[in-house]
Amino acid sequence: MFAILDIETTGGKFDNESITEIAIIQYDGNKIIDKFSSLINPEKKIDPFVEKLTGINKRMLRNAPKFYNIAKRIVKITEKCIIVAHNADFDYRVLKTEFRRLGYDFKRKTICTFKLSIKLFPNKISYNLGKLVKSLGIPIKKSHRAYEDANATFKLFRLLQEKDVNKTILTNEIKDSHLNSLSKNILKLIDKIPSKTGLYYFYNNKNKLIFIGSSSNLKKKVFNHFLNNTSRNRFYKNEINNISFSLTGNESIAILKKRNEIISNTPICNNKNDSLKKYNPNNKLNEPLYYPFDNFLLVDKGRTQDEFSFIFIKNKIYKGYGFFDLNHQIKDEVNINSRLIEMSEDKEMKKFIIKLIKNKKFKKIIPIDLDCKIHLK
Fold first, then answer.
1. Residue 310 near residue 323, CB atoms below 8 Å
2. Burial of 297 from C-beta contacts in 10 A (0-12 / 13-18 / 19+)
3. Going by DSSP bridges, is the β-strand pair 317-324/341-342 parallel, antiparallel, or unpaired?
């Protein structure tokens, strides 16, 4: 579980700041569970520069609750969650300070989207939240207000989850889970898995990823691992200490994502062609291996009703896949690459994509001209 948050403060000397606004989005890794936002009366003067930056002034805060009025709500919505923030060191420090003034020791694990973005989106001009999300096509109405910034951070974090093929984020989450009873926790973990299309991940008691699977019905597939009495499934029962999952919206992206992550993580119970066996049982395709265009996007449904997935072909070579929900997010190659989960094409993958096109397993093809301008309709 994650608690994506943003705070605005009075400014001032280090460790003397007070919170003027807070917003928190509780997120289970696939959907939003809860939300909370509020102005807060800091009972002190706001720095003039900060007041101008945020637009939050003394008059707005006159009837706002004091921090102690909402402290329990903050504790509850962040309980058993990893705090996610852009420049998490600052937000977490100020939040801990507010709780310390109340005599409460507030402790949570943290993930910083600023640091993750530097790692997963290298060579960006700026990693300032407003400029970064704008470069990624993520809308933000007004920066330096808590809910708008928290919502933008949430959308950025979802994109970072997809870019994080080496599972750095999930590893951090698992380190904080402290699982003890295997059977009870396995049942609890399976109960959280939806009957939707995507990937599932098995981890051993050393938090090492040992298997990646995919299915159009994740809950049913994972249950079968524990119900069927095969030697492999008996091994899983003894070894598995945690299970996570990731929705993809359609089977094509599930196959691509699975193949990519198997190659990146080399789980001991997978081989790199696991994801293709069902779709290319004989690894043969009689037709010539030709794409219909030199440059194009193959678009299909995404993980939510308003989202789409894409497969990117450039110069007759498969480059990877990604997700988008607004057309301007794929308007040119720069924007496409910002959302792209990169992969290297091989012959089997090319067969798979051509078979998708031949069988019309997609919503539409969007050709791209030589300047990589998208012909959106």
1. yes
2. buried
3. antiparallel
Return the bridge partners of 84, or none.
Answer: 4, 111
181 token code pair:
């009873």
Asked if 317 and 237 sit in the same domain, the reply is: no
Q: Give the chain's domain count.
A: 3
The structure's pTM equals: 0.66
251-265 vs 347-358: helix crossing angle, rounded to 10: 170
Query: How far is it, in rounded angstroms, from Cα 306 to Cα 296?
Result: 21
In a domain, 376, yes or no: no
Is there a single domain that holds both residue 190 and residue 113? Answer: no
Distance CA 8, CA 372 (A): 40
Segments forming the whole domain that contains residue 259: 181-276
Q: Tell me whether residue 303 is exposed, middle or buried, using C-beta atoms within 10 angstroms of its C-beta: 0 to 12, 13 to 18, 19 or more.
A: buried
Look at residues 145, 148, 150 and name the one whose alpha carbon lies nearest to residue 21: 145
For every residue of 298-354, DSSP letters joined together read: EEEE-SSTT-EEEEEEETTEEEEEEEESSGGGGSBHHHHHHH-EE----HHHHHHHH
Positive or negative, the Cα torsion across 172, 176, 181, 187? negative
Same domain, 15 and 128: yes
> Residue 198: which region, alpha, beta or left (left: phi > 0; alpha: psi -120 to 50)?
left
Q: For residues 321 and 162, what is the distance between their CA atoms, to the nearest angstrom?
A: 10
**Strand, coil or helix: 279:** coil
Dihedral over Cα of 272, 275, 280, 282: its sign: positive
Q: What are 281-327's pLDDT values in tens digits?
A: 454 545 667 888 999 999 999 998 889 999 999 999 999 999 998 88
With 90 as the cut, is the pLDDT of residue 279 above it?
no
For residue 11, give the amino acid letter: G
**Would you state the structure tokens that stand for residue 262, as one six-digit string?**
């198997």
Q: Tell me how far apart the alpha carbons of residues 327 and 304 are, in angstroms, rounded to a whole number.
A: 16
List pLDDT tens digits, range 110-169.
888 998 888 888 888 898 888 898 888 888 877 778 889 999 999 999 888 888 877 777
